[in-house]
Amino acid sequence: MKAVLIPGDGIGREIAESVREVSAALNTGIEWQEFAAGAEYAAESGELIAPGTLDAIEACGWALKGPTATPIGKGFRSINVQLRQRFSTYANLRPVHTLPGVPTRFDNVDLVIVRENTEDLYKGIEYMLNDEIANGVKLITRPACEKICRFAFDYARKNGRKKVTAVHKANIMKLTDGLFLRTFREVAAEYPEITADDCIIDALCMKLVQKPEQFDVLVAPNLYGDIISDLCAGLVGGLGFAPSANIGDSTRIYEAVHGSAPDIAGQDKANPSAILMAFAMMLNDLGETDKAAKLNAAILAQVEEGKVVTADIGGTAGTKEFTRAIISRLAE
Questions:
Q1: Digits of tens for pLDDT over the chain (332 positions)?
Q2: Is 9 part of the annotated catalytic residue set?
Q3: Parallel, antiparallel, or unpaired: how do β-strands 126-130 and 133-136 relate?
């Protein structure tokens, strides 16, 4: 099969090469079609995304991307937002769990964040009322709320999760977040075997850093989902271990959600774990569950052993050495 690979900026090319090597070692048979996108490409070409990229994603239906930066103050829209809206990848799925060998404040985190991906303030509807007043529109629709809430409950049912919590600020934004919360409760009634509750966003952030084990699946509108995704990644060691999937009806785009780390780009220092874990999510959705499980197990075992790991988790190994160690475990 064919899939699109977007290395992106900074360390993107190095960690994308890790994906290619691991994919070959697992004999996935995936034919990667590589396209450039991001700030570096924009500086060379004046365009943020290489011609043919969007057509290739539409044709394949599957894509994996590294970190992409957006030039500041140049009129470019975020690549991630463009892709999500272009392909209606309405659900952003972010699993977060404690990894043995990664020092954190908690040892019992096992959360899944389900983030609505296409509307809310990230719809990008902004305008100036006058020179001193800027306005942004928080767009919330019932169809989008129902779709993301149903996705969260279906995910919970399929994966043996026991509780889904809606994240909102309906006490203040009674119409927009109120609509989200009402729709959540309507959908929850169709899944009686799954506990459904809700939590106000500010209270949720406090509870997550006090006792994260009290939560299971979190479903949220776009902005809140973005915030709590990074917060929860911090609970388990940072964005270096934060894979993500953007899921639509006909297109799925997987990504490492960390930044492009230009300060270490080209130095063989980057940790490829996040993009490899995103690749494992992709393999699982492709039906290659054994290969996905094998890759995840190899990453976990390598990190837990702690001998050949990258500097961000206390090691001295480079990207290539860490990747070779993962591949060696895949051969066992």
A1: 999 999 999 999 999 999 999 999 999 999 999 999 999 999 999 999 999 999 999 999 999 999 998 776 556 778 888 898 899 999 999 999 988 888 788 888 999 999 999 999 988 899 999 999 999 999 999 999 999 999 999 999 999 999 999 999 999 999 999 999 999 999 999 999 999 999 999 999 999 999 999 999 999 999 999 999 999 999 988 878 889 999 999 999 999 888 899 999 999 999 999 999 999 999 999 999 999 999 999 999 999 999 999 998 889 999 999 999 999 999 98
A2: no
A3: antiparallel
Q: One-letter amino acid identity for 10?
A: G
Catalytic residue among 122, 155, 224, 254: 122
> Distance between alpha carbon 161 and the CA centroid of its chain, in Å?
19
- Does 122 participate in catalysis according to the annotation? yes
Q: Is 138 a catalytic residue?
A: no
3-state SS class at 318 = coil
Which of the following is catalytic: 224, 226, 269, 312?
226
Q: Which of 202, 211, 249, 290 is catalytic?
A: 202
DSSP 61-123: SEEEE------TTSSPPPHHHHHHHHTT--EEEEEEE--TTS--S-S--EEEEEEE-S-BGGG
Query: Residue 239 corresponds to which tokens in the numbers above?
Result: 């964005």
**Residue 72 and residue 207: Cα distance in Å, rounded?**
34
Residue type, 313: I
Helix (H), strand (E) at residue 168: strand 163-168
pTM of the model as a whole: 0.91
Q: How far apart are CA 112 and CA 215, in angstroms?
A: 9
Q: Of 41, 65, 147, 169, which residue is the catalytic one?
A: 169
CA–CA separation, 228 and 208 (whole Å)? 9
Write out the DSSP string of 181-211: HHHHHHHHTT-TTSEEEEEEHHHHHHHHHH-
As a 3-state breakdown, the chain gives helix, strand, coil percent values, each rounded to 5, of: 45, 20, 35
